[in-house]
Amino acid sequence: MAYISKIDDLSRRAFLRRSRQLAIAGTAGSFAMGLAGIGEAAAFNVGDNEDDYKALVCVFLYGGNDHNSTFIPVDDRNYDLYSAIRGGGPGRTARGLVPSQASLLATKLTPKDNRVLTNGVEYALAPQLPRLKALFDTNAMAPLLNVGTLNAPMTKNQFTNQAYLRPAKLFSHNDQQSTWQSSAPEGSSDGWGGRLGDLALARQCNTNSLFTCISATGNAVFVAGKNALVYQVAPNGAPAVDGILRPLFDSKAGSEALRVLMTQDRSNIFENEYNRVARRSIEAQTVVSGALAPITLKTSFQSPSGPNPLADQLKIVARLIAGRKALGVKRQVFMVSLAGFDTHNDQLDSHAQLMRRLDFALDAFYQATVELKIQNKVTTFTASDFGRTLKSNGDGTDHGWGSHHMIIGGAVDGGRYYGVAPRISTNSDDEVGSGRLLPGIAVDQYSATLARWFGASGETEIRSIAPNIDRFENKDLGFLI
Fold first, then answer.
1. Alpha-carbon distance 115 to 121, whole Å?
2. Rounded (5°) CA angle 219-377-8
3. DSSP state of 99
């Protein structure tokens, strides 16, 4: 089966767009813009070596992860402040939303550079995250503190008195999910992962363009590009038409008739387009199934604590990465997710269960990349709608803004913190009410750092991924080697 490719089509579109720009600019300007276009096209950094492969894997925690229950103050001073705000009990024992101080000692993080954080705060991961603690200790995981959606650096006074500077529709699930993934509220048509895919396609580093941006979690704007298509997979592999995959009504002739009906050219433009998409899907399923057939992993993705949808998604991602040469790809962007983080109530139990799933899944995926000897070429990172309030509502927490996240991989300069730790307070300059964090790091800075590692270079390319990046002094957060 020949690989499916949209490269010629994409190149034609790019040429036409550039031609229209040149026509508007005039002859002299046209020549200059043409040279600039050549420079931009060549800027994306990918080598000719077939082993020059890189993948980004976005792990989106839908609902707004409570970072305050993920990174927990463990030193006496800050633990007491935290416990008082969250309804903890005397004697540093478990109560309200607060685990006992003793239960945090096994997951306490000691940074390799001995950096002292704000007010001397020392963090422990949630007790359900021992595997991620081990990755931190072996320099394969780095926490990114207080990151969130920002249009520009913002002070608390500006938040209060200059509301027009705020990102649109703060604290709204759908809009903040979209803003994290695409830099715009709900309704955005392309995400920054997809735009990275666009750069990879322009560089023609993938023989089969369809497998550049892949979602294992259904439709997601993050992996939608202006040209790069989203290819969706299920935990068991590529989606297939059952009547074609297996004999229709126990008849091979019936299956063949169905295949012809779904793929033949039609005179009606809408029918023909439908069949073109169906034909591409059927052909892609054949390619993916062939690439996955010889792949077996020794790393177990079978969670000891029961069903784990995130582990299932990451397993298929690991298998697809293992089959990268058969798929004809050198650069890939993946999207996976775990839902259930909107913990307005019953947070103590529900968040603990989510942490167990996250801990197992992220560690299993990293170990699979080690098994495949590709851990330095795969970077996994977390994202979420927003953080949550430090102040408890009694049985849970409410929507916040900034939050802490994790980056995992062999290329990560881990075992140390990035960003500035917030104060443990509901009345400080780095929060905007009830302990909602005013982000100190923008998603644009986060995405720009990941984009550079992936291969984007030059101001134009970075700006296409992170449109607000020029407003921030630090354009590379330094967590990737």
1. 10
2. 60
3. -
| Burial (Cβ within 10 Å: 0-12, 13-18, ≥19) of residue 148 | buried
- pLDDT for 269 equals 77
- What would the two tokens of residue 196 be? 């990275």
Q: What is the pTM of this model?
A: 0.88
Reduced to 3 states (helix: H, G, I; strand: E, B; else coil), residue 95 is strand
- Label residues 61-73 b or e (16+ Cβ within 10 Å = b): bbbbbbbbbbbbb
Task: Tell me the pLDDT tens digit for each residue of 300-358.
Answer: 999 998 999 999 999 999 999 999 999 999 999 999 999 999 999 999 999 999 999 99
Q: Name the token pair of 468.
A: 């607000």
Q: Report the share of the chain in percent with pLDDT over 90.
A: 74
| CATH for the 54-236+297-471 domain, from 1.10.3470, 3.40.190, 2.60.40, 3.40.720 | 3.40.720
- Residues paired with residue 339 on neighbouring β-strands, in sequence order: 62
Beta-carbon count within 10 A of 207 CB: 15
By residue count, the chain amounts to 481
Contact 418, 109 (CB under 8 A): no
Alpha carbons 47 and 214: distance in angstroms, whole number: 22
Locate the domains of the chain by residue range.
54-236+297-471
Sign of torsion over alpha carbons 454, 456, 457, 463: negative
Burial class (CB within 10 angstroms; exposed 0-12, middle 13-18, buried 19+) of 341: buried
